[in-house]
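Q: What residues go here?
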């Protein structure tokens, strides 16, 4: 992640000869990042990668508008934080960062269910079995539920996003606090 921080209070701070700068500094941050992800589901005690299974028909000619999604995506981090200087070279920070993603497949769910019989045209063996078992897991909640081709699975109008809470300790090399 490459991010810039803006410490708004430093724009309004007046330094005088008798006061040391505040040790607390709230800040805003924004930047750009790279997200590498791999949606998975547990099946019979083993983790199975979902992207190769085309759970929504990605890459199938029957669903030509659904392209295979990439497992590396750009993200836009936006956040707020508070820095506290423990010394002139050591500080601690707390941050809340919201990351906007350029994908709706972080969880492998975006559009609608497909007709599972199409898997027979593309997969065999274990991959076919996994695709048939993992493209629709509603039966786990309600064994009587019947999903139809075209039923809503996700919301393609909203890309995924996530947030993190970070606590950081930073050491600054070659920095000295200005004192009189």
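A:
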């Amino acid at each position: 992640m490459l991010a810039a921080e803006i410490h708004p209070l430093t724009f309004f701070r007046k330094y005088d000869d008798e006061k040391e700068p505040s040790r607390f500094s709230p800040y805003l941050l924004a930047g750009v990042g790279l997200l590498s992800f791999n949606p998975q589901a547990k099946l019979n005690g083993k983790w199975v990668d979902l992207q190769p299974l085309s759970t929504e028909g990605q890459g199938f000619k029957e669903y030509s508008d659904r392209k295979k999604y990439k497992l590396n995506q750009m993200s836009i981090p936006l956040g707020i934080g508070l820095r506290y200087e423990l010394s002139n070279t050591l500080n601690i920070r707390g941050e809340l960062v919201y990351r906007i993603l350029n994908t709706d497949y972080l969880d492998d769910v975006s559009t609608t269910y497909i007709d599972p019989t199409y898997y027979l045209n593309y997969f065999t063996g274990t991959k076919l079995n996994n695709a048939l078992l993992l493209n629709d897991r509603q039966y786990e909640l309600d064994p009587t539920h019947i999903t139809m081709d075209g039923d809503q699975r996700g919301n393609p109008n909203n890309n995924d996003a996530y947030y993190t809470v970070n606590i950081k300790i930073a050491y600054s090399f070659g920095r000295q606090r200005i004192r009189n």
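A: Context that may help when evaluating the design: The chain has two helices and seven strands. The longest strand covers residues 72-85.
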